[in-house]
Amino acid sequence: SEKDGNKFIAASSVKFLLEKTNFPAEAIIIRSLPNNESKKETNYSGNNPPYFEAECMEIFNAKGIKHILTDLPSLDKEDDPNLTAHKIFFGHPQEWNIEKTVTEMIFVDDKIPDGNYLLNLQIASFESDASPSKPVLYSLKNI
């Protein structure tokens, strides 16, 4: 969606897509359009990149999503110093849910069809508020 020059992923779109999918999942991968190789080299800083409406996080929380993976540089608007979407997803200020993760700036090629996968989310073993990760998808078609 777009409003006042801001591109964002609308809560209404997330709600619609999750209602279409009855498969229980703890993780969701969201890739934005256009989905091309240029994403791998885009400098998003200072360019008002797309973000998630904060209400999306409430929907993810209600659906039991523990892991969000996206090709966007952040869940939040670039000029949001409060990190509103992050805080809603992780449960701040009530209680931080340290079992949850957000992986940003991934690239999922169009050759990989939408659907259900097994996810092996490999996270570096050091304590920090940010850590590199390596998501690996496995097709469920052969299982």
Shape annotation: globular
Largest sheet: 3 strands, mixed
Task: Specify the helix fraction band.
Answer: 10-25%
Number of helices: 3
Q: Give the uncertain stretches in residue-range form.
A: none
Give the H and E element order.
EEHEEHEHEEE
N-to-C span? 36 Å
What does the model show?
The protein is of the alpha/beta class and 143 residues long. Helices cover 18% and strands 23% of the residues. The chain contains three helices and eight strands; from the N terminus they run ββαββαβαβββ. The strands form three sheets. Strands 1-2-4 form a three-stranded mixed β-sheet. Strands 3-5-6 form a three-stranded parallel β-sheet, with no helix packed on it. Helix 1 runs parallel beside helix 2 (54-62). The longest helix is centred in the first third of the chain and has 10 residues, at 11-20. It is globular, with a radius of gyration of 15 Å.
Question: Which terms summarize this structure?
Answer:
globular; 143 residues; three-stranded parallel beta sheet; single chain; alpha/beta
